[in-house]
Every structure is written in C-alpha cells, then in structure tokens.
Amino acid sequence: MPTAALGRHGGQAAAGRFAVHDGDTWFLPRFGFVAGTSYTLLIDDAPAGTIVCPAPPASGPPAVVAGLHPTAGRVPVNLLRVYVTFSRPMGEGRARSAVTLRDAGTGDVLRGAFLDMDPELWDPERRRLTLLLDPGRIKRGLAGHERAGYPLVEGRTVVLEVSTAWRDADGRPLGAGAQRRYVVGPPVRRRIDPAAWAVGAPAAGTREPLTVGFDRPLDRGLLEHALSVRDAAGDPVGGVAAIDDGEAAWRFTPARPWAAAEHRLAAKALLEDLAGNSLRRVFDRDLTRAADDPLDLDEVQRPFTPRR
Amino acid sequence: MSGTQTTTMSRYGLEHGSPDLRSVGAIAFGPEGVLFAADNVAATIFAFDVSSALPAGAGVPGDVDGLDARLATLLGCAPEDVHVRDLAVEPGSGAVVLSILRGEGAAAVPVLVTVGADGELADVALDDLPFAALPIADAPAEDDERLDVRVVAPGEPEGETMEIRGITLRVTREPLRTTTVTDMSYVDGTLLVAGASNEEFASSLRRIPFPFDGTTETTPLEIFHVSHGKYETHSPIRTFVPYGAGGSILASYTCTPVVQFPLAALTGDATAARGRTVAELGPMNTPLDMTSYTRDGAEHLLVANSRHPLLKLAVSDLEAQEGLTEPQQPVGAPREELPHAGVLLVGGAGEQVLMVQRADDGALSLRSYAADAL
Questions:
Q1: Taking Cα atoms as reference points, which of B357, B351, B364 lies closest to residue B59?
Q2: A281 within a domain of the structure (yes/no)
Q3: Could you tell me if A119 lies within 8 Å of chain B, comparing CB atoms?
C-alpha cells in the first residue's frame, strides 16, 4: 500500500487511510486537505507525485472594520480597553500583528501597549475583539508601571490602527484598514456615580426618548446591556436603546408611550468607564483613600417621572 | 468496550456519542482517564473518556524533535497551520495529550493528539466516545430585562423586527459577552476554571463539580499589589496550578503578580477571596503555563513566561513567604531562573517534567526532564 507524507518527516504519515474503489486507489484524509498546501504521495518511501489543494473561490465582499471603540476624541492616559468590530466573522490570532497604537506626531509605534492575550477575547460570532492595554503598566505600584510607565503618554495624540494583515474566518484579508485618533488626557480614577448623570425625562403619553448624559465616556461593550428602565411596578420597560457617539450619552425609546408615573433608570454595578472604574470600585484602588472604598452593590437606580 | 470504561462512564455521568467540538484550548486530566477540554467557540467544557486512546504501557515519552513538523504531517497541513494550545500529562501513567488547532478561522479543526513513549503521535478519535458537556456561556436568563433593550449599532446587521402592540421595532438579541477559559485544573472532584470576560475587567475562578451537575460556583478574587501595600485590584487569571495536595493555588495574573490563595477560600459567596502576592515578574511579560513536580520529596512549581526566564519556586519557600506589602529587592519569594529557553508549555508527572519548547527558528520540540535535573 502506498503511504502519503508531507514534509521531510517520512516517519510520520498523514492521518487517513487508503481504499480501493472501482479499480482506483483513493486516499481519504482524516482531517481534510488544506487549501494552498501541497501533498506528496510516497510509494515504497519514494515520491510518486505531488498535488496542491486549490483554494475555494471567494464569496461575498471582504470583511471591513465596522467599528473602533471608544469613539470619544479624548481618552484618559489609563485607558484600559478598545473594541474592534468587523463586518464578518474573523480568524483568531492576528491581533498581535494587525493592531498598533502610534504616536500621531512622530509616527512611532507605542511598543508593548497591548496585553498579549492568548486566547484572544472575542464575542461568540468572532466579530468583536476586545483588546486590553497592558494592565501591568496601567496599575499604580506594579513593576510594569514603575519601569515602563503607562502604555499611552498624557498630552500626546495617538492613532489606533488596524491593518489588512487581519484574516477573516475564510482566510481572506480585510478589504481595508481603519484608524482612529485620540488625544490623551489625565488619568481617571474614581467610581462611576449615577447621581452625577443628567437624566432628561421625556413627555408622558409620548414615545420620546429618555436621555441620559454621563459625566465621562463609558465602556461601549458594557453600555449595551448595563442600563435598563423599569416602570412604577418595577417591571422592565421594553424598547430600543441607542448609544451616542463618544459613549457619553444614552437614549432609550420605549415600545409604548410613557405612563405619567415614576420610573427608574437601573444601572448594573459592573458598568465600567474607559479606565476600568465601575460603579463598585476604582480600577486600582488606593487603600489609603476612603472615598475609593468599594461599594457592595449590584445595581444603582435613578428615579425619573415623565413630564405632563 | 472495556469493563473499565463502563465503570468510568457510569461513575462520571458520561455517555457515548459524537461531541460537537468546535475548538480546543486548555485541557486538564481528571480522574481515571477523563480529559477535560475547554471549547471557547462553543463556550462549553467537555469531559472525554480518553482512557482507550492513551498509549499502552507506562511512561512519559522521551524527547520529540520537530514536533510541529511531525504534527503537520499527521494533520495534513503546513507546520505554520499547527497551533499547539495546551499540554496535559496524566498523573500516574505519564501519558501525554496535546490540544491542537489545525488552521484558522472557520476552517480550524480541533484535535487532541497523544504522544507515545517512542514519540509516536496519534489523534484521539472524537466521533464516538464517552463524554459529557457543560455550557459556560454567560447568557442572561430568559426573563432578564436586558433582552428587551438592545442597541442596534452602525455597521451591525439589523437583526429581527419585532412587533409589540402594533409597533414594529428593530431589535437584536444575541449576547456579545463571553468568558474565555484561560486555564483549568482538577482537584478532588472539582474542576477549577480560570477565565477572562471580553467586557468587564474582573477576576473569576469557577469551581465546577464533576460529574457535571449543571452547577458552578464562581468566586471573585482580589489581590494586593506588591508595592507599598497600597493598591488593590482585580485581574483575570492567566494560568494557575494547585499544589500542596490541592489545598492551595498559585496563580499568575495578566498584570504579572504571582498570587497564592488557599482553595478553601473559594466558597462562592459574594465577598471576594483575597490572594496573597508572593512574587512579581516584571513588565511586558505574559505568564504562559505552570506546573508542579516533586524533587527530593519536596514539591516545586515551574512558571513558563513569554519573556521572563523559566522560573522555579519551592513550595516550602512560598509557604514561608509573607504576603508582599512592602517593596523589596528581589521582589518576593526566593526563586531560581532556569536556563531552558523558549518554554511554552509545562506538565509535571511526579519526578518527570515535560516541556514544549520553541527554538529560535520557530521549530517546536517536546522534551522530558528528570526532576532532579531542574
């Protein structure tokens, strides 16, 4: 029986089996041939022929970057996280080579800015990637922060760049790269306090949106589900929410007209800002500051009543 | 099917079937030939009975050079399409399993490969074996009001249209949250799972009873920073190892401190368990893997890193170490840097340690070391 082998290791055959059917000998690979790879058939350990598995034809337009968050023009120097959203499912393992932060003035790449996370942090469909800036360099008191400083530089403008080195789930490169500029401001180290939010009550009897203005940009991923509205009975109010550009405001349009009764805006305690501070805690809490003590809560509520 | 296999199956709630494995990452041996495997695409932890697939005969395999090229040949692909994700060594027998992803993206094929005593590679057939599966998705409950409120973002597909009392709305319901498993270990009837959220920045360690009964306890964890005893934060655990007969855990966080905590502290109640920082590995270093082994009757731990050299710590030194609250030089518990280069994965089997190492030219090898040589 012939053996099939790939590469120089003749002692290791490709997993699969040979079978004879209608007078022809077939090789049935255990794992399937890989597009673009060549395979050599050996008979009595001598090469007898080589094939190359062709790539399937591309279907549909190539993937593009559908979103880069935060969209705020200013970020704190202790920015913790960015999200890259694509139009199609993507392949994993490319973040290290395909995303960079550069100084906008000099063009220099900010080395070691991102945490090398393996496995990468994707959503279930592999369309949204979460990238963390190196927490070891953000957190006060750690060797990374003491020796290498923040990944970003306060007062500078940086550019977040996504290159076409990325491959989608079918192995095709991105149709185009994308970038976003940020001005780097001072660090933010305080809990999120919903009492500081500007809540604009809608008119009763209408489906006007409830508007909420935050005192700082908040995390895009968590904003998508951390806020909700309850009616006077405590039941959830159905509707559609929208997050404004800059992630500093949230608008909720109800499915049915507002009743003229007290409602509550509910915020889950895990909601974070751009620096990882939440309703519960400061990202790297200073034990000597009592104001930063963590709060033991699951949720905070702000009441509002639609106007007559 | 062997008598042993039926016993294992019934004792651990496994059933014959064809698991829908979509990816594979962290793996860990459980009791009696059960191998746990984390599938981050399916957000599921599988328990496979691999006892009949493990190479017969005792013994830790010897060195395997050109591991990536050999795996590539076995899997019918180019070496750069071989992604070795994790290494597991069965306690007692020393049998070795590697978790591999062949290729990328939608075409990625998850494979479990055994390494025989003579270095022979074979894949574990996953189309008919005893197994159990536990979903770990962070999905909100059916009646969670968040399902009624959903942002339709620019660039996203519009999702379904919903009619509520004569009003048509465009809503999407699919959750974007995931927990990505970074490491697992089995201790005395419990599978410990470290994971990172793709949204909030938090520590969590899950305790999953085995046989799976659908429950998991989750304990948030806090650590004290090294410097000045002044700062306190959370961080996802990147890799951890139980030691001291499973009574303690050494964990390495994504922001580099190495932290110790007793297993008994993880009781799943709301107040966080606190870890004691015993070492800090310095900037721009990612911890990759950890294992324990025995040398001269004493338990030792190895920590493989992306940048920092391979570290060896003696458990007796860890136990004697006060939690780090003041700056010290060198920082933390006494430790030794070992000369082994390019260590990606480590696995201990009593007095042998296996390492997957990458050479400067990128070639992978699996090497076996006697404990008294480390």
A1: B351
A2: yes
A3: yes
